[in-house]
């Protein structure tokens, strides 16, 4: 993520007088008004189709390095509160909205959205034709962009475009260290305790941690640079890879770590970035989508049940794999099959290993702000771990099955 120094100034929503301009790397320009912090910010411009849940979107670490455009026209109506945040800060590189709320109207609100953006130093822009920008990205693909607000909006247009084009592309970026915890954090299990779960924090959301703890896991959130010895040290019953930003092809260390986990025959579940990393650990390729999937209204087919789920997505990369029938893992981990398929564009949305205890999905089953169609996947993970535990030598159930 590249963010130039910003100046934090008070804002007044639509009444803000400071100008701002959105500049895309192809030279497209959109003039609007400053929103949030003033200054310059750079990143990959992407759009999210969610009609609700802007607070969860902003605090999702998977959006690090990206300037997020909300396709919903009215943003900020319910303000911000301290209960619905998904992580310790706002992670988007920049924010684009059409009509920011002038008045916050919700009993849970603790501050306005533009104040929250300013506090975290997030440069935004309002008052532009977000539909036009979205249609352009859908045609031309996600691209680098910059928001220049306040004094920066008056910079020479050629200079602004040059700054945008000098910014790094998302392809090839490893952003895990930017969003991960620095030291391990533990959340106790709730209900019947199943055991310790090693969660590699590549940008984990709080709702994920809560869902795992609710299934009886003592959740150990580990830094993204954890080693296999760090994982073995907590004597885990399973390993989980979280969502996160960046290009999976640039995460060689995480892929090698996952192969060590699979070699240990530890049950594994991955979501979003974790799905892409499982694919690469199994020997599959990944590729960048033209404009990605971001929003809370994406239809996915669960091939196991035949059920169509409406799901929450936030990803710009996907796994390359045959959609029909099992195939052999190129890396030697036995048979694998695509378990879920996106119905909009036939993108791989899930993987299931048939000979080792491992599966993953490309979307977000925790889905804070909804929908909750895919929440059952946490139960599926818990059941897989129980079954694996009960069939290991030395367990009571294993002894019974041998008698």
From TrEMBL:
Gene3D superfamilies: 3.40.50.880, Carbamoyl-phosphate synthase small subunit, N-terminal domain (3.50.30.20). Keywords: Amino-acid biosynthesis, Arginine biosynthesis, ATP-binding, Glutamine amidotransferase, Ligase, Nucleotide-binding, Pyrimidine biosynthesis. It holds the Pfam family GATase. The lineage of its organism: Bacteria, Bacillati, Actinomycetota, Actinomycetes, Micrococcales. Composed of two chains; the small (or glutamine) chain promotes the hydrolysis of glutamine to ammonia, which is used by the large (or ammonia) chain to synthesize carbamoyl phosphate. Tetramer of heterodimers (alpha,beta)4. The active site is at 272 (nucleophile), 364, 366. Residues 18-148 form the Carbamoyl-phosphate synthase small subunit N-terminal domain. It catalyses: hydrogencarbonate + L-glutamine + 2 ATP + H2O = carbamoyl phosphate + L-glutamate + 2 ADP + phosphate + 2 H(+); L-glutamine + H2O = L-glutamate + NH4(+). Belongs to the CarA family. Its EC number is 6.3.5.5. It comes from Microbacterium invictum. The keyword Transcription does not apply. SUPFAM superfamilies: Carbamoyl phosphate synthetase, small subunit N-terminal domain (SSF52021), Class I glutamine amidotransferase-like (SSF52317). This is Carbamoyl phosphate synthase small chain. InterPro entries: Anth_synth/Amidotransfase, CarbamoylP_synth_ssu, CarbamoylP_synth_ssu_N, CarbP_synth_ssu_N_sf, Class_I_gatase-like, CPSase_GATase1, GATASE. Residues 1-193 are annotated as: CPSase. Small subunit of the glutamine-dependent carbamoyl phosphate synthetase (CPSase). CPSase catalyzes the formation of carbamoyl phosphate from the ammonia moiety of glutamine, carbonate, and phosphate donated by ATP, constituting the first step of 2 biosynthetic pathways, one leading to arginine and/or urea and the other to pyrimidine nucleotides. The small subunit (glutamine amidotransferase) binds and cleaves glutamine to supply the large subunit with the substrate ammonia. L-glutamine binds at residues 62, 244, 246, 273, 276, 314, 316-317.
């Amino acid at each position: 993520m590249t963010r130039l120094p910003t100046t934090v100034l008070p804002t007044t929503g639509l009444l803000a007088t400071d100008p701002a301009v959105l500049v895309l790397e192809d030279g497209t320009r959109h003039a609007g008004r400053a929103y949030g912090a003033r200054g310059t910010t750079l990143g990959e411009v992407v759009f999210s189709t969610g009609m609700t849940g802007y607070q969860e979107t902003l605090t999702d670490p998977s959006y690090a390095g990206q300037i997020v455009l909300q396709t919903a026209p009215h943003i900020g109506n319910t303000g911000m509160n301290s209960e619905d945040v998904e992580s310790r800060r706002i992670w988007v590189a920049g924010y684009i909205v059409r009509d920011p709320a002038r008045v916050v109207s919700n009993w849970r609100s603790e501050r306005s959205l533009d104040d929250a953006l300013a506090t975290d130093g997030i440069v935004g822009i309002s008052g532009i034709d977000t539909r036009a920008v979205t249609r352009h990205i859908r045609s031309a693909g996600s691209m680098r962009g910059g928001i220049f607000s306040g004094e920066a909006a008056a910079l020479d247009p050629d200079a602004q475009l040059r700054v945008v084009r000098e910014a790094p592309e998302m392809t090839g970026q490893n952003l895990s260290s930017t969003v991960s915890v620095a030291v391990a954090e533990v959340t106790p299990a709730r209900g019947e305790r199943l055991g310790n779960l090693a969660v590699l924090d590549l940008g984990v959301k709080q709702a994920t941690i809560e869902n795992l703890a609710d299934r009886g896991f003592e959740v150990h959130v580990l830094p993204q640079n954890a080693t296999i010895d760090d994982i073995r040290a907590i004597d885990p019953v399973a390993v989980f890879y979280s969502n996160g930003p960046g290009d999976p092809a640039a995460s060689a260390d995480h892929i090698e770590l996952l192969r060590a986990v699979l070699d240990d025959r530890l049950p594994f579940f991955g979501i979003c970035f974790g799905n892409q990393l499982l694919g690469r650990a199994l020997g599959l390729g990944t590729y960048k989508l033209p404009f990605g999937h971001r929003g809370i209204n994406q239809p996915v087919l669960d091939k196991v049940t035949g059920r169509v789920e409406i799901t929450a997505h936030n990803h710009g990369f996907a796994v390359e794999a045959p959609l029909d029938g099992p195939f052999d893992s190129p890396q030697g981990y036995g048979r694998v099959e695509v378990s879920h398929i996106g119905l909009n564009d036939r993108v791989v949305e899930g993987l299931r290993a048939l000979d080792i205890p491992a599966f993953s999905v490309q979307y977000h089953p925790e889905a804070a702000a909804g929908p909750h169609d895919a929440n059952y996947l946490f139960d599926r993970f818990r059941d897989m771990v129980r079954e694996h535990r009960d069939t290991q030598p030395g367990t009571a159930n294993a002894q019974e099955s041998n008698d």
